[in-house]
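Order emerges. As here.
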Amino acid sequence: MHIYKNNHLTLASSVVSIGAFDGLHRGHQTLIKEAAKRARELGVPSVVYTFDPPPRAHFQNTRVLTSVDEKIELIKLFDIDYVVVAEFNKEYASREALEFLLELSFLGPKEIWVGPNFQFGKGKKGNTNLLSDYFHVNVHPLVTCDKGEIISSTRIRELLQNNKRKQADHLLGRPRIKSLNT
């Protein structure tokens, strides 16, 4: 697996999954696995495009569930060819949606995989509809746990805050890693 900063990778074609992937929980894992499967079917490289820190941590100062290094180690388990890590800072957050679309075009995406709530660009002006105007987009449905509740990083943070670590581990699909123990 090769790791790049944003705007440093150019590919003729690929399948790209995009997200903050904070915690890399079971929902994230499902989306990335589906995108990687499609890349293999199409015979093109798989790319995971993610952010450091996650946008929610930048804007709302929320707890980060996995460091970028931990996230990369977990992504390696899914046989991904490339990871693009965008440094999410004030400058990155001020980019217009079309700038993000232009950057994605250099990855040559045959398909892009995102979750249903995916937004991008300054003021969250970009969404899956805009993304679909430029690329073939697969919007992966939200993944739920056995009880039918949506698996999300926000829910995992709440469980950890309430000392429900076993439930959090279940939603993560693995035992906690270092940064989750704090």
